[in-house]
Design a protein that fits this description.
Blueprint lengths: L1 H14 L2 H9 L5 E3 L5 E3 L4 H9 L21 H14 L13 H17 L9 E7 L2 H9 L5 E5 L2 E8 L2 E7 L5 E3 L8 E4 L2 E4 L1 E3 L2 H14 L4 E4 L5 H14 L6 E3 L7 H9 L6 H29 L10 H15 L2 E8 L4 E5 L3 H10 L2 E14 L6 H12 L3 H13 L15 H14 L28 H8 L8 H17 L4 E12 L2 E13 L16 E4 L2 E8 L6 H11 L7 H10 L3 E4 L2 E4 L1 H12 L9 H16 L4 H16 L1
Parallel strand pairs: 3-6, 3-11, 11-12
Antiparallel strand pairs: 1-2, 4-5, 5-6, 7-10, 8-9, 13-14, 13-19, 15-16, 15-18, 16-17, 20-21
Helix pairs in contact: 8-10, 10-21, 10-22, 13-18, 14-17, 14-19
Length: 673
Amino acid sequence: KETAFKLRDFLDSLFQNKDFLNKIREAEDIPLKVNEQQEIIAIIPDITGYVQASGRTSRLFMDRVTKGLSYVLVDDKKALKALVKKLRYFNEEVQLRDAKEVDIKKVLKEIDEDRKKEFKKKDGLKDKLKSTLIVVESPNKARTIAQFFGKPSRRRISRLDTYEIPVQDRHLIITASKGHIFDLNKSEGLYGVITKNGNFLPVFEVIDEHRKDIISSLREIAVEVNEIFIATDPDTEGEKIAYDIFLALKPYQEQIRRAEFHEVTKRAFIEAINNPRDIDLNLVKAQLLRRIADRWIGFEVSKYLQETLKKSWLSAGRVQSPVLSWVIEREAEARKKIPTVRLDLDSFQVNFQFEDAKQARQFQESVKKVKVEILEKKTEEFYVQPFSTHSLLREAASVFRFSPQQTMQLAQDLFEAGLITYHRTDSIRVSQVGLNIASVYIKEHFGEDLIRLRPFSESEGAHECIRPTRPVSSDELLEQAFFELKDITNQHLRLYDLIFRHFIASQMKPAKLEKAKIRISAEDRHTELELTIQIIEDGSNLLVPVRTYPIKEGDIAVKDKKLFYKPSSTLFNFASLVQEMKNKGIGRPSTYAITIQKLLDRGYVIERKNFLIPTKLGKSVQELIKENKKLAPFVSESFTRELEKYMDDVEVNGENYLHYLRDLYETVFHSSL
């Protein structure tokens, strides 16, 4: 109550300030205006009224909507801005054009011709409406897609929820597989793979009774519809899920295609179902190779650990074990401490390192001032890149201290809500749609002069960076859609804000920075630093701030000093461990978070004060593996990196699948074991 009163008093004082009121009057982006009586009036656009009114300018037929024209008379620019902003949340492609740029007579003629075409049709439309089953992975995604087109009807078949709604010339039935339905059997052949005459037959089975019900329900729907589109996630895991569903439903429905989209938006979804493709068997083979390699190596090493340490829950794997070894090695290096004195100066800190503690203590006691010299100045441009998976995990860990698993779950939720593009990607490519989103936002908020559109890659691959799907900031998202975002928490908004700022900044003019190389001298000690001393010209720094350190040459008094023992190597944290995995080519966007989480779940590693520390159990497990000369090579960094290259090759050239599988089989089970 007291806080509310303070807020009221603060707002009252603001609204009495003439400069503040003038700024409100002048700013087109602020949906408030001040009348002659100095009263504050909120501008709230009537979105429902506009959509209903503009919708009546077109005609709805069974298979499509005819062309229409909405002519808006603008008597208040603030109201227009507020209307466009709100509309863009519901449809990211909304663009109101100046009537001077449009040939109205030509548009009206096109509208008349469009309607005449419909009235001239004689064959009717009853046979044209197709029933289509859409299978996605997540129930949230199914609901989000269905709501793009109105209020869907719901039907429950056994344990499966479906959403039904007409779209263009189709009656859509949208549902979710809830992830993988099948997995490798554990008892048949060699850990679920039968080897016969040089061939390998992986034996898959339904994961559990719940998944069995899902398949039964999907088959029940399959016989009702004209076609099926499998729209699972656009990666190797999603392709394997799609392939499994394809095989399970093929006897019940001939027309089964793959629909692929990288953002959950109305535009991307319509484009995907209008341009379906076949299952990409190369991606399926790459996932099979990964799964079999994980099973053969993981089960063999895990069995050895469980039998040796008498603990049935222990595990190891081809990615997990090298990463654990890095954490252990880094902790051993960090045990070596270097006596260090940290000096606090006017605008920055500086460290001096010593060979022994006695020297460090003497320096700490005697130092009163330092001498600062600028050795060199240079101008640099500050660029920002949009996020890929590893850079998002690293930045979220660094800024928010989110674990990789937490970041991936939040990103998954944002993707399924249709707020960001697919979050498992190695690419930083920006599509034309992404460039348009950035252009709209920068123009409206910073002006055209700061737009510098960069696709970051000339290739036309399907994957792109992690970016927002609308030109809507986190503040605008909260303001415009508070009631629609029921499951979006403050943590979701923080991650969205990080993604949004980095993406928009990547399409802005680079900031121009002045940097200085400086020498700091104290007593008989010297050290050098490079610092950003000022921002010469604004650009990308307006969204991704750059810290500056104003430097004065000459003698500077020491404000505070501290003696501590700095590790010779810094322990890994979430951010640096993900970066190490990326640098060394171990793991993929879909496995970075899972690998680190497994180490935590198994008790091999703990997190303490934002650092990752190996446990006694983790060290014992790694030591056992290292001592076993037969097993150690298969969980080594070099072997794992080589396998990752095999899998990447199979994604492009599926013919190599059996060759690599035979090679893996011979290496693991014949050469050593």
